[in-house]
Structures are given as C-alpha cells and as structure tokens.
Amino acid sequence: MGSEMSSLPDLELFTMGMWSIGLGAIGIAVTGILLANTDLFLSKPEAASLEFLETTELKSLGEEERIFKAGELWKKNGAVIMAVRRPGCFLCREEASELSSLKPQLDQLGVPLYAVVKEKIGTEVEDFQHYFKGEIFLDEKKKFYGPHKRKMLSMGLIRLGVWQNFLRAWKNGYSGNLEGEGFILGGVYVIGAGKQGVLLEHREREFGDKVSLRSVLDAAEKIKPQAADTD
C-alpha cells in the first residue's frame, strides 16, 4: 500500500512532464507557422540591371533553333517579359492568361509580350502557349530569375497567402501538373527600348504572387520607341 502511494507523485510528475513537452511542441509549431507567414525568412530579391539582362543568352523554341542576346527583344520597342516559374503550374498559367489579356493594349503601344522558361520538358511549353499569347524563349542560365535566384520550398505550403492563391486560381478554372522545377521564383519585367532601362521589375514573393496589370500598363506607356536605323 505504501509503495503504491509513493508512486502516485512520480506518475503525476511524469504526466505533467508529458503535457509540458506536448504543449511546448505545439507552441513551437504555432510559432513556426506564424513566422512562415511573415516576410522574415523570405529571401530578398536583388534588382536586375539592364546590363545584366541584355547579355543573357536566349534560345528560340521553334523548329529552327536560334541563340541570341536578350537585348534584341527590347532594342526598338521595349518589351514585357514574364519569367515563368513553371509552365505546368496552374498559378503561372493564371498569371500568363491575365498578362495576355493586356495584349490588345500592348499592341496599340507597339510593345511586344514575351516569356522565358528555365527548361523544356515534353510538351509543357506548348501546353503553356494556350495561356500565354506571346513568344516563349529558353533561359538555360536562369538569368531572368536572378541575379540572386530565390527559392521557396516547403515553407510555401504553410503560408496563408499561397493557399489563398491556390484557391483563387482553382476557382477561376485553372489546372496544372507537377512537371519540372518549380521552386525558383519567377517574375515580370517591363523593359524600355534601347538603353531606357528596367521600368518595372516584379519579383514573385511567394507562389502565385501576381504582378499588377495596371502597373504593367503604366510602365509600358512610359516606353520610348527607338527610331528605326537609317542608311
């Protein structure tokens, strides 16, 4: 009887200890989720200069392969360029479709719409073309995703904003797949003609962080076309 009585405090201490460990674990998990939903651990983008971008080697994806310097894209009329995180991603397809909705206004301004991808897998680029109404090129060195390439890994799946973006794109009827690299974040650029410079640089903060269409148009309206070369 005495030994049973003496074991009760030990049992209570053990139970309290387990509760403390459990509550501590929950506290750590909650703190981790809260921190993941701040910008504290997001890698900060480094602005891409015109000099950095214009020397990028791009490759055409048509039947006749062509390698050229990216500066050719905006030399005369500037350009709007989407750096696609992953063609099969339904969030990227949503943004591509929305950017393509600006094409009539961009055409009036004489500003072309382009996209770059990091890789070409199967028919992913061709499938993406259903959503994107501009020419697409391959940026194998991923310079349009730099100078400092930023990644969002598993932390993205516990960010409230990402889930809100998932729900929005799903409700809008977009679907996709998991083919290809999708952790290096993308962005959208509006680049002026010639040496006018980068007029807008939107770098994706998290999965599904879209550029403002109004800001794209505002920047495109500032482009000053270069006079055609004359003999």
Description:
This protein has 231 residues and is α/β, with parallel strands linked by helices. It has a seven-stranded mixed sheet. The longest helix has 35 residues, at 2-36. The protein contains eight helices and seven strands; from the N terminus they run ααββαβααβαβαββα. InterPro entries: PXL2A/B/C (IPR032801). One of its GO terms (molecular function) is antioxidant activity. Keywords: Antioxidant, Cytoplasm, Membrane, Redox-active center, Transmembrane, Transmembrane helix.
Order of helices and strands: HHEEHEHHEHEHEEH
Rg, please?
24 Å
The number of helical runs is: 8
Helix content: 25-40%
Subcellular location: Cytoplasm
GO cellular component, one term: cytoplasm
Family: Belongs to the peroxiredoxin-like PRXL2 family. PRXL2A subfamily.
Protein name: Peroxiredoxin-like 2A
Task: Describe this protein with a few key phrases.
antioxidant activity; globular; 7-stranded mixed beta sheet; transmembrane; 231 residues; alpha/beta
Describe, in short, the structure shown.
Helices cover 38% and strands 14% of the residues. It has 231 residues and is α/β, with parallel strands linked by helices.
Topology, pairings included?
Layout: H1 2-36, H2 50-54, E1 57-60, E2 67-69, H3 71-74, E3 79-83, H4 90-100, H5 103-109, E4 113-117, H6 124-128, E5 135-138, H7 160-171, E6 187-191, E7 198-203, H8 213-220
Pfam family, one: AhpC-TSA_2
Organism: Mauremys mutica (yellowpond turtle)
Family: Belongs to the peroxiredoxin-like PRXL2 family. PRXL2A subfamily.
